[in-house]
Fold:
Amino acid sequence: VWWLKIHGGQIGQSVHIGVGSIIVSNDVKLSNGARIGNGTHIVAETVKLGKRVWIGHRTQIRTRILSMGDESEITNDVEIGGMDSPHSFLILGKKSSIMAHCFVNTTYGVTVGDEVGVGGYSLIFSHGSWGNVLDGYPYQAGSVKIGNKVWLPWGVFIMPNVEIGEGTVIGARAVVTHSLPAHVLAVGVPAKIVETDYPKPLAAQQKNEWIERIENEKKEYFTWKCREPTARDLKDFYGRYGIRGAH
Structure:
């Protein structure tokens, strides 16, 4: 932290960088409460981490621009990078999460909205080729855009030049080869839409039943923990039901 400060970095309060972690950048802004685990390496022209951002252990990031919104996270053993390119970036919105063992190819840019969950072992590519294109082998390239409140369960594969609309859910192990609209459920290889207008709104009675169940489970959980919940405890508890922010 002190090294970044003396080299012009804008470093907020309660920032923590773990053992063996490094940031190589000429433009660094780490907001209050940002934390980086052990053995994580970040190489980028610009690094901007919002308030209470968490980057886990042993994560490797190499891209032109890294921008993470408040309370977002990239967890352990994630790799973000690809070929060097002036178009390379990862923009991660507020309260979004990229979970363990994901690979994100940012050669032509990846934008992830707010409150998005990218499950572990998922693969996101903005560039793909191997064989010589002059011999007729395929070449795919283009930015990936993921809208707000999208959920990618574990093991989802997203191909280049794909846009996923707000609130859409992708089935586990699906391969997304083309853009998808907002508020659909898509599953399979390749991913196909199986439900539209998704999710269906709950009736008032159903919602009240869920509230009662959640509050009962909260009481049981913190009784088992033998303590009163902190604000962070409550955030984590309600987060397991996908409840974030004021409700």
About this structure: The chain has a mean pLDDT of 94. The two ends are 36 Å apart (CA to CA).
